[in-house]
């Protein structure tokens, strides 16, 4: 299979200081994209992502921004345009989760989840879309979750925030298709990142047994799907939710 090239393209990846976001940034950098590595608080890890990009022969910069705040999301996109010349690809990856019974959650907790996962995605899209429309090209990939497709007990608001991302993806794709901008989502299953660190080894083993492929996914499994969606192979693909879950749902 021909290796995708994104040489000369500029990509913004939110929440790229670790986990899935870092893997996405590295997969895009491997094929020549310049990367704006966004993070919220962990500057050291964001610098590490940039260091790995440089070791691959790539280039980029790190940008601190809390994407749940509209003006910070705007600053992220504006900084990428100013310093890297333009934005061809936006990957809305930053997200948070909280596991527990819905009745034990409080307003602050559900506001936080919705603000980061759903509003953060909207904030970044809104800030980049005018720029992409004026250039008549662009590619947006939103990272949702398999729970956004089917809902999960003890992750109710998280599931809803990701379901909202899925529907936003489908709707925005229709609105932006005439401007030659594609919008898709990747809905990962259980991926081996810090987000799942709370699992005990017994819980982890039990969960692995529920996955037909018998293992957690890794960041590369998601990163390679994002790479496909950003490339020529997906030139006629928009408004789709691609589930990457080892067959779990
Ligand atoms: P993670 O390891 O917890 O990393 C989260 C990343 O998001 C970090 O880089 C963090 O930055 C950043 N972030 C959090 N809040 C932010 C904010 N307000 N503004 C900017 N950046 C922010 O998570 P992950 O497992 O890689 O998950 C990445 C995405 O995949 C999320 O959207 C998640 O919901 C989704 N997902 C994950 C799984 C899974 O099993 N892991 C499954 C399905 C979907 P700092 O380091 O600076 O805090």
UniProtKB/TrEMBL annotation:
GO terms for molecular function: oxidoreductase activity. Belongs to the short-chain dehydrogenases/reductases (SDR) family. InterPro entries: Sc_DH/Rdtase_CS, SDR, SDR_fam. The keyword Oxidoreductase applies. It comes from the Bacteria. Keywords: Oxidoreductase. GO terms for biological process: monocarboxylic acid metabolic process. The lineage of its organism: Bacteria, Bacillati, Bacillota, Clostridia, Eubacteriales. This is SDR family oxidoreductase. The keyword Heme does not apply.
């Amino acid at each position: 299979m021909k290796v995708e090239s994104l040489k000369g393209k500029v990509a913004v990846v939110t929440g790229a200081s670790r986990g899935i976001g870092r893997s996405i940034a590295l997969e895009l950098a491997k094929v020549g994209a310049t990367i704006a590595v966004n993070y919220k608080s962990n500057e050291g890890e964001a610098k590490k992502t940039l260091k790995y990009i440089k070791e691959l022969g790539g280039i980029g910069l790190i940008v601190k921004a809390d994407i749940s705040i509209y003006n910070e999301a705007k600053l992220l996109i504006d900084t990428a345009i100013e310093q890297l010349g333009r934005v061809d690809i936006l990957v809305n990856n930053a997200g948070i989760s909280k596991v527990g019974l819905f009745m034990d959650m409080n307003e602050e907790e559900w506001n936080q989840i919705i603000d980061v996962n759903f509003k953060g995605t909207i904030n970044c899209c809104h800030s980049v879309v005018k720029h992409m429309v004026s250039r008549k090209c662009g590619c947006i990939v939103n990272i949702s979750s398999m729970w956004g497709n089917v809902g999960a007990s003890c992750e109710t608001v998280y599931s809803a925030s990701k379901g909202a991302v899925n529907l936003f993806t489908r709707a925005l794709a229709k609105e932006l298709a005439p401007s030659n901008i594609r919008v898709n989502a990747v809905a990962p299953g259980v991926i081996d990142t810090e987000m799942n660190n709370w699992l005990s080894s017994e819980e982890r083993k039990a969960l692995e047994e529920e996955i037909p492929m018998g293992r957690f996914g890794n960041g590369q499994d998601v990163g390679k799907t994002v790479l496909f969606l950003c490339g020529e192979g997906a030139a006629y693909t928009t408004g789709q939710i691609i589930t990457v879950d080892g067959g779990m749902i």
